[in-house]
């Protein structure tokens, strides 16, 4: 593998792409450290040191590499774009116009991408407004008395909202130029960078708990990563045979191939769905809570005790069930057995022993249902691993624990995809690649 990396860096155009990607990542991390105008950087640092770095926006803070709690210009990270992409993808099933655009090919996909950008800006405005409102009211950092936004005038708050929204637009642009001129998927690499930036911080916290604990965590991390790689690569290959056809004087078809169905067909999307849905009650309870120092109501107490507390059995059980539900839901709307069966029938393809048309669709639906169950259980188990670990941070909140949950799923998935893209470009240049 090291020889393959050396060959990649020795190839001029491939080396240029790799260095370009690394340069964009440096720019992204620089923007994640610059505070937004109107934010007291000193007070923010004091509040971050005093409070537990978890809460309603812990998922966004994870994806932004800690930029959220620093209230930087890239505070929102790539999360608005992810949410907008998921919403547009779901709307293709509900809105006939979107479904038609999806079938139009590259031109229709371009329009859907444009709609995704518009929706991303709208979501960025809403999320930045909510974050700033919580910061002004002192609810973003619990038990922190110093003001993180000293000037809370309307003009100053509008400037902050515009700055954070513009930061999200810049992140979208950075991700797109990485995809176009660099290596790998730009948006995925930016998410990978944000999560990887949190690993040293979390590792330092674990190291402070003792050398034995750190060693056990490292061993557990290797086992978890190996297991995730094994399952992510697992797939059910359904054999497909294409009949011979005479077109003019030439014969086409007669080939054998397979239809790959991954065990984890939904990826990390169900985990993001479940996390966002679980944090919604916390957001509502924070915004509706009284700011006069009075005791919280029964709703705020219930949410904080059973939904926000990640060690609560209610939180763990609900989180697991939501992941299983959204896995089936997302696979059901993204993989249509009827369409696949019609495409195979149109090009003369059939599954040996299965008649084309409706029997093929029923067989694909049966196989998909069988492999979705272990895929959903795998996602749920990996996602709740941080909740089942010992309290390594001493705060009872391990959602951003870097060796389990959403973090390891995204990092392993993006890492495998990037390595495959580099290997494919090496193979085009007659190198052996990573696998020998």
Automatic annotation (TrEMBL):
Membrane topology qualifier: Multi-pass membrane protein
Gene3D superfamilies documented for this protein: SecY subunit domain (1.10.3370.10)
Keywords associated with the record: Cell membrane, Membrane, Protein transport, Translocation, Transmembrane, Transmembrane helix, Transport
Entry keyword Mitochondrion: no
Domain of life of the organism encoding this protein: Bacteria
Name of the protein in question: Protein translocase subunit SecY
InterPro entries linked: SecY, SecY/SEC61-alpha, SecY_CS, SecY_dom_sf
Protein family membership: Belongs to the SecY/SEC61-alpha family.
Assembly and interaction partners: Component of the Sec protein translocase complex. Heterotrimer consisting of SecY, SecE and SecG subunits. The heterotrimers can form oligomers, although 1 heterotrimer is thought to be able to translocate proteins. Interacts with the ribosome. Interacts with SecDF, and other proteins may be involved. Interacts with SecA.
Entry annotated with the keyword Protein transport: yes
A GO cellular-component term linked to this record: plasma membrane
Pfam families attached to this UniProt entry: SecY (PF00344)
Taxonomic lineage of the native organism: Bacteria, Bacillati, Actinomycetota, Actinomycetes, Pseudonocardiales
TM stretches of this protein: 20-44, 81-98, 118-142, 154-175, 182-199, 211-231, 252-280, 316-336, 367-389, 401-419
Species of origin: Actinosynnema mirum (strain ATCC 29888 / DSM 43827 / JCM 3225 / NBRC 14064 / NCIMB 13271 / NRRL B-12336 / IMRU 3971 / 101)
Compartments reported by the entry: Cell membrane; Membrane
Any single GO BP term: protein transport by the Sec complex
SUPFAM superfamilies according to UniProt: Preprotein translocase SecY subunit (SSF103491)
Function: The central subunit of the protein translocation channel SecYEG. Consists of two halves formed by TMs 1-5 and 6-10. These two domains form a lateral gate at the front which open onto the bilayer between TMs 2 and 7, and are clamped together by SecE at the back. The channel is closed by both a pore ring composed of hydrophobic SecY resides and a short helix (helix 2A) on the extracellular side of the membrane which forms a plug. The plug probably moves laterally to allow the channel to open. The ring and the pore may move independently.
């Amino acid at each position: 593998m090291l020889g393959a990396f050396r060959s990649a860096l020795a190839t001029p155009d491939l080396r240029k792409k790799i260095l370009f990607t690394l340069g964009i990542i440096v720019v992204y991390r620089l923007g994640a450290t610059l505070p937004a105008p109107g934010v007291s950087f000193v007070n923010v640092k004091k509040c971050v040191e005093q409070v537990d770095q978890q809460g309603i926006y812990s998922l966004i803070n994870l994806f932004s590499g800690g930029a959220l709690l620093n209230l930087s210009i890239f505070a929102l990270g790539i999360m608005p774009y992810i949410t907008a992409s998921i919403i547009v993808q779901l709307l293709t099933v509900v809105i006939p116009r979107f479904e038609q655009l999806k079938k139009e090919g590259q031109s229709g996909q371009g329009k859907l991408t444009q709609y995704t950008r518009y929706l991303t800006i709208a979501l960025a405005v809403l999320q930045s407004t909510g974050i700033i409102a919580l910061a002004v009211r002192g609810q973003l950092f619990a038990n922190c008395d110093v003001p993180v936004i000293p000037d809370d005038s309307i003009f100053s708050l509008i400037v902050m909202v515009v700055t954070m929204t513009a930061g999200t637009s810049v992140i979208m642009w950075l991700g797109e130029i990485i995809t176009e001129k660099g290596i790998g998927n730009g948006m995925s690499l930016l998410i990978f960078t944000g999560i990887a930036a949190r690993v040293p911080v979390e590792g330092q916290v674990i190291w402070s708990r003792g050398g034995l604990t750190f060693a056990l965590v490292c061993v557990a991390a290797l086992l978890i990563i190996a297991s995730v790689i094994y399952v992510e690569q697992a797939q059910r290959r359904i054999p497909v045979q294409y009949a011979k056809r005479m077109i003019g004087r030439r014969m086409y078809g007669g080939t054998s191939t397979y239809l790959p169905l991954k065990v984890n067909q939904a990826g990390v999307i169900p985990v993001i769905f479940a996390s966002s849905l679980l944090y919604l009650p916390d957001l509502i309870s924070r915004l509706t809570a009284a700011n006069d120092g009075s005791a919280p109501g029964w709703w705020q107490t219930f949410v904080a005790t059973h939904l926000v507390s990640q060690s609560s059995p209610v939180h763990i059980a609900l989180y697991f069930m939501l992941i299983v539900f959204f896995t089936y839901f997302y696979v059901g709307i993204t993989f249509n057995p009827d369409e696949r069966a019609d495409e195979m029938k149109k090009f003369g393809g059939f599954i040996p022993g299965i008649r084309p048309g409706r029997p093929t669709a029923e067989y694909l639906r049966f196989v998909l249902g069988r492999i979705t169950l272990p895929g959903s259980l795998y996602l749920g188990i990996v996602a709740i691993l941080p909740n089942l670990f010992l309290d390594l941070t001493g705060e009872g909140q391990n959602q951003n624990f870097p060796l389990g949950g959403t973090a390891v799923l995204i990092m392993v998935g993006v890492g495998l995809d990037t390595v495959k893209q580099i290997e494919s470009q090496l193979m085009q240049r007659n190198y052996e690649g990573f696998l020998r």
